[in-house]
Automatic annotation (TrEMBL):
Residue runs in coiled coils: none
Statement: the UniProt record of this protein carries the keyword Lipid metabolism: yes
A Pfam family this chain is assigned to: adh_short_C2
Family per similarity comment: Belongs to the short-chain dehydrogenases/reductases (SDR) family.
Gene3D superfamilies from the UniProt entry: NAD(P)-binding Rossmann-like Domain (3.40.50.720)
Alphabetical keyword list: Lipid metabolism, Steroid metabolism
Name of the protein in question: SDR family oxidoreductase
C-alpha cells in the first residue's frame, strides 16, 4: 500500500500497459482515474477492479480532442481536490504509413509527432499547478526504447518518443523546486494486443533474438517500474529515462547473429 490515499490519472488505460498500470497503482492503494475514449470499456474495467476492493474511477479523454487533456485533469481535481500521480501512457503510430525518411509523408509525420507530444505536454501542463499547490507529485511518461535507438521504420514514432525523453528531463528540471518529479519508462517489445496486431510472428521471433532475456516484457513488468516512480521509494529520483527492454541494444551489435549461429549448431 505504498500509494495509499494518492490520486492518480492513467491515460489510454483500458488495455495493455495502461490497464496494467491502473491495476498496479490501484492495488497499491491509489485512487486511480482511468482516462479513456471508450467509456463503456473503462467502466467495465473499473468495476472489475472495484469488485476486488480497489478504488478506480473513470474520466473522458480522447487524444484527438486536445481540449480533453485539460478537462480531464480539471474534472479529477474537482472531484478529489488533489492530483499526486500522472501516467502519460498514450502513444500512437500507423506502421503502414509511418515508414522511413524516404517514404513517410510529411503530414503523417507531423500528425504522429504532434499527437504523441501533445498528450504529454498538455496533460502535464494542466496537472503541474495542482501538484505544486498540494506539495508535489510524480509524472511518469511512457516512452519507448525506440526513442533511444534508431530503427529502419516508424520515423515519426521514434522522433516523438525521443522528444518525450527530453521533455521528461525538462519537466524534472523546471519543476523540481515544486517537489514534482518526472521520469520516463521505456518499454521494449511488450506482450500487448498492439504488438500482436501490428507485428508479424516472423518479425517478433527475429526481434527476440536481440533481447538477452529472450522474451517479451509483460505489461505488468512495465507497470512495476511505473509504480516505483510513483511511490516515495523514488522520492529522490527525477529526470531518469529507465530502459525496461530486457537488455535490448545493450550487447554487441552482432549479439542476435551470434545467438542464431549457436542455435544452428
Amino acid at each position: 500500500m505504498r500509494l495509499d490515499g494518492k490520486v492518480a490519472i492513467v491515460t489510454a488505460s483500458t488495455r495493455g500497459i495502461g490497464l496494467a498500470c491502473t491495476q498496479r497503482l490501484a492495488r497499491e492503494g491509489a485512487i486511480v482515474y482511468m482516462a479513456a475514449r471508450n467509456m463503456e470499456r473503462a467502466e467495465n474495467r473499473a468495476k472489475e477492479l472495484n469488485d476486488e476492493g480497489c478504488n478506480v474511477k473513470t474520466v473522458y479523454n480522447d487524444a484527438t480532442e486536445k481540449e480533453t487533456y485539460t478537462s480531464m485533469v480539471e474534472e479529477v481535481f474537482k472531484n478529489e481536490g488533489r492530483i499526486d500521480i500522472l501516467v502519460n501512457n498514450f502513444g500512437t503510430s500507423n506502421p503502414q504509413k509511418d515508414l522511413d525518411i524516404k517514404n513517410t509523408e510529411y503530414d503523417e509525420y507531423i500528425r504522429t509527432v504532434d499527437i504523441n507530444l501533445a498528450s504529454v505536454f498538455m496533460t502535464s501542463q494542466a496537472a503541474i499547478p495542482h501538484m505544486a499547490a498540494n506539495g508535489g507529485g510524480s509524472i511518469i511518461n511512457i516512452s519507448s526504447i525506440g526513442g533511444l535507438r534508431p530503427d529502419i521504420s516508424q520515423i515519426a514514432y521514434g522522433t516523438s518518443k525521443a522528444a518525450i525523453n527530453y521533455l521528461t528531463k525538462l519537466i524534472a528540471t523546471q519543476c523540481a523546486r515544486d517537489n514534482i518529479r518526472c521520469n520516463a519508462v521505456l518499454p521494449g517489445m511488450t506482450a500487448t494486443e498492439a504488438v500482436s496486431n501490428n507485428l508479424t510472428p516472423e518479425f517478433q521471433e527475429f526481434f527476440l533474438k536481440h533481447i538477452p532475456i529472450k522474451r517479451m516484457a509483460t505489461p505488468e513488468e512495465i507497470a512495476g517500474a511505473v509504480a516505483y516512480f510513483a511511490s516515495d521509494d523514488a522520492a529522490y529520483t527525477t529526470g531518469q529515462i529507465m530502459d525496461v527492454s530486457g537488455g535490448f541494444g545493450m550487447p554487441t551489435p552482432i549479439f542476435g547473429d551470434m545467438i542464431a549461429m549457436k542455435s544452428k549448431r
